[in-house]
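Fold this sequence, please.
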Amino acid sequence: MTKPTIDIARALVQKRKFADAIDLLEDSREIYRESFEYYLLFGTACLYVGDTGTANQNFQKARHIKIKDTRLLLGQAALFLRRGDTDLAIQYYLDVLDIEPQNKIAKSAMEFIRTQGNYETIVRWVDSGKIEKFYPPLGRNMNELVRILVSAAAGVVLALILLNFMNLGTGRRQAGNRADLSELTLTAEEQQNVLETDLSGGVYRYILTDKQIMQAYDDARMYFQDYRDNMARVEVNRILNSNASSSIKKKADLLLSYFEEPTFDTITDNFPYQDVAQDPVLYVGCWVVWSGRISNASPMEDSFKCDLLVGYENLDHVDGIVPVLFTPSPKPEIEGGRPVKILSRIGIENGKLSLIGRTVYQPVQKD
């Protein structure tokens, strides 16, 4: 009797034959499109070969199906740790320990962050492959031949990681079809003249140092290559509303043209309402999925307006009320008596937070 594809792929991953497993899983995407185990396995295999962009996409899809799984949380924490984003990594490791207090990987990773978690050390661990000790476990593999293949795979991982860090800040590419950002590399003159010299002619929301501007610019490009357009957009907004030089602002603004419109399945870094409400300008253009109920619905010929009562899906409390505009047609079909999730783009209208609606999801009405 033929084994299911996912079982064959899992066996390949345990043997450290990641490329073979990835090929097999890629060919079976339609069959397993609603399978948590499929996306988790696919993401884990990609993580081990250094394809962090594809790993992140699959982990996000798995997260839409099941949130509280320690293997998934370890995988997502590892992605943040690789990038040096230790604050977010710690949040995920704490979630792991809430579910499984004795989880050795989470404890070990947090101890590493506490004692050695500076960016330079993390880079060295990624470069050497030692960072894999914090990846989701694969199980034991006693086959000597497989161990040889593991060494070969480690060489591939090392080459990919070295390539990433050699090109950091000069338009690096992750595996996949992300655009080449080499044209957005700052010139030597731009790096020497980061700040706007005459501040009398403008209004600046954020007054930043030259190091903060350079960090924001590098982060925006890094997030873009990691398929985290929302985070990249935040950094671009920070630059555009700051005292950065006009030349740097032009290049940051050009990066916006590369961003992709997400779906419910592909959105990353879904910012909570409370964060956005505190500083809407920083999040303009970002995509969010917020849930709640609607009020003041106003269908028109070529548009649909309503207010989203954010957080009110269970009729407990309202985090905030945000106007939403859907345009152009087709207009969404939203029933006011049921909870709703709306994928929308953040905007500002008359100086206040607003949303430009894109897609709506409502659960089936229960008796």
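DSSP finds 15 helices and five strands in the chain. The longest strand covers residues 287-299.
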